[in-house]
């Protein structure tokens, strides 16, 4: 393990693996609403692999390396779901390698779901074999989109910071896919909190690989006055949800109209959705 990490770090220094340029699509967008609600969804799509039991991690593991006809059908099903939402945060997307049939999955889902703005953050670039990415789909044109490379023993975790609305008081979305270890998660969250301190309207969304009570009680998120979704919001594994790993956490003064897990078992995670009322300008 130590030797493998050392080799990966050498590739990072040689700019072969990480970081790598993002890809963005931008067609005419709707104006950002100042006084109404917006619909948000976060979904770890597991590169389009349909996992419905633990044994599928073994029997369908080849799909992490090779293309599959079923993958595009799964993406089409996901796109139908995403059409219902204004902003989507995606994790475990592929940017167009062999395993995805050279399809940029973020772009594909944006086009199929009718989101004119999309952004792909390429976090771990293994060339033609895999392009591990986060994604943003949006009906609205953001003020800005910024990439953040997160600290960790193994490179390849990132976040997307997106600002909407008014320059002097924007809505700030933080799209994340955190590491597995609790210590590294705390480091990554601390790094993010330092970047967004001073903003009032905050939304953290993504695959946190941790339960909300630990995130809000034992990490730097405790300083931000964020509200979790209900305790029963469990998203993993999709076929028998037992753990709440995927979250949308919002500033306490923002009004949540509707929230919960979406029963849509295509990936090994279930998506989480939220309808949020925006404050007056």
Q: How does the SSE layout of this entry go?
A:
Blueprint: H1 2-13, E1 23-26, E2 37-44, H2 56-59, H3 69-82, E3 87-94, H4 105-113, E4 117-125, E5 131-138, E6 144-149, E7 158-166, E8 169-177, H5 182-196, E9 201-207, H6 212-218, E10 226-227, E11 246-251, E12 255-261, E13 272-277
Parallel strand pairs: 2-3, 8-9
Antiparallel strand pairs: 1-4, 2-13, 3-5, 4-5, 6-7, 7-8, 9-11, 10-11, 12-13
Helix pairs in contact: 3-4
Describe the overall structure.
- It is a single chain.
- The chain is an alpha+beta fold.
- It has a single domain (22-277), classed as Deoxyribonuclease I, Chain A (4-Layer Sandwich), CATH 3.60.10.
- It has helices at residues 2-13, 56-59, 69-82, 105-113, 182-196, 212-218, and strands at residues 23-26, 37-44, 87-94, 117-125, 131-138, 144-149, 158-166, 169-177, 201-207, 226-227, 246-251, 255-261, 272-277.
- Strands 1-4-5-3-2-13-12 form a seven-stranded mixed sheet, with helices on one face.
- Helix 3 crosses helix 4 (105-113).
- The longest helix has 15 residues, at 182-196.
Quick rundown:
With 281 residues, the protein is α+β, with helices and mostly antiparallel strands. Helices cover 22% and strands 32% of the residues. It has one domain (22-277): 4-Layer Sandwich (Deoxyribonuclease I, Chain A), CATH 3.60.10.10.
């Amino acid at each position: 393990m130590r030797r493998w990490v050392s080799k990966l770090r050498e590739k990072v220094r040689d700019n072969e693996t990480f970081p790598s340029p993002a890809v963005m699509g931008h067609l005419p967008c709707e104006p950002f609403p100042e006084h109404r609600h917006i619909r948000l969804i976060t979904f770890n799509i597991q590169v389009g692999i349909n996992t419905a039991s633990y044994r599928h991690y073994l029997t369908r593991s080849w799909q992490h390396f090779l293309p599959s006809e079923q993958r595009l059908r799964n993406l089409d099903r996901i796109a139908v779901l995403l059409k219902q939402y204004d902003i989507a945060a995606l994790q475990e997307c592929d940017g167009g390698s062999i395993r995805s049939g050279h399809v940029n999955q973020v772009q594909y889902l944006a086009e199929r779901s009718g989101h004119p703005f999309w952004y792909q953050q390429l976090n771990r670039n293994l060339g033609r074999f895999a392009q591990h990415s986060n994604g943003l789909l949006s009906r609205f044109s953001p003020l800005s989109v910024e990439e953040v490379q997160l600290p960790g023993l193994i490179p390849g975790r990132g976040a997307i910071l997106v600002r909407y609305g008014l320059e002097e008081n924007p809505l700030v979305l933080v799209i994340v896919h955190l590491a597995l270890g609790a210590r590294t998660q705390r480091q990554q969250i601390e790094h993010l909190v330092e970047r967004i301190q001073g903003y009032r309207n905050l939304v953290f969304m993504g695959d946190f690989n941790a339960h909300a009570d630990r995130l809000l009680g034992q990490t730097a998120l405790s300083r931000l006055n964020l509200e979790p979704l209900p305790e029963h919001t469990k998203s993993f594994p999709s076929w028998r949800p037992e753990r709440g790993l995927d979250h949308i956490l919002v500033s306490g003064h923002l009004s949540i109209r509707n929230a919960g897990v979406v029963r849509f078992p295509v990936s090994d995670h279930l998506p989480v959705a939220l309808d949020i009322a925006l404050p007056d300008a």
